[in-house]
Amino acid sequence: xxxxxxxxxxxxxxxxxxxxxxxxxxxxxxxxxxxxxxxxxxxxxxxxxxxxxxxxxxxxxxxxxxxxxxxxxxxxxxxxxxxxxxxxxxxxxxxxxxxxxxxxxxxxxxxxxxxxxxxxxxxxxxxxxxxxxxxxxxxxxxxxxxxxxxxxxxxxxxxxxxxxxxxxxxxxxxxxxxxxxxxxxxxxxxxxxxxxxxxxxxxxxxxxxxxxxxxxxxxxxxxxxxxxxxxxxxxxxxxxxxxxxxxxxxxxxxxxxxxxxxxxxxxxxxxxxxxxxxxx
Length: 280
Hints:
Rossmann fold, globular, 27% strand, 41% helix, alpha/beta, ten-stranded mixed β-sheet, 10 strands
């Protein structure tokens, strides 16, 4: 599976949190408001950003299981959550956190998501299965299997920041179209779960959950930002991915990335948030 560094995840966290659709977050909170001792499984948790964004909107007593294949990211999540909390204490392998009036117990589970979710969800019995910036990396077949596992558990499902392929970079650059076409081709490469769904992931998720009797809602959640470290890192990553495809010359890709360091550069990067609720 494709991995991400804790430094990259920390750099993007403010933009991720700002991009989330507040209406969908409110709908999720309303659907779970009556749950007592809410149980949450966070897939591909990285350094815990999804918990930090969602926990303030969920019931007062929460039990999270953070799932990632990378032990270094699970360690980074533990450290970042302890810093984020008003109070934190170890509870065996777990953490007990207090943040405002929320009491949050966090377990950390190393698990290769490529093998599936069935056993994981059977063990954890979640009320909510959630993820951030994950599903564009997996295949449509994996999405269908994951949806069946979530439905079998009867859980609410919520995912945010699934890349939708829409980007606007300003001012225009002569290589924009070629870079973007190459990047989209790279997005569908195998990231460890079969050919990635890439920008088709949100539609595949919604289709899969509706077929299982879920009610779904989606909303746009684009990144919007100007010149700075995040935009520079994003441009470098996009240029490198585009060059890997062979569809653009490396020198063209690098020139594009360097141009995007200009102080007048702006970018809008499209994402979709999705909420799926069981029942008619």
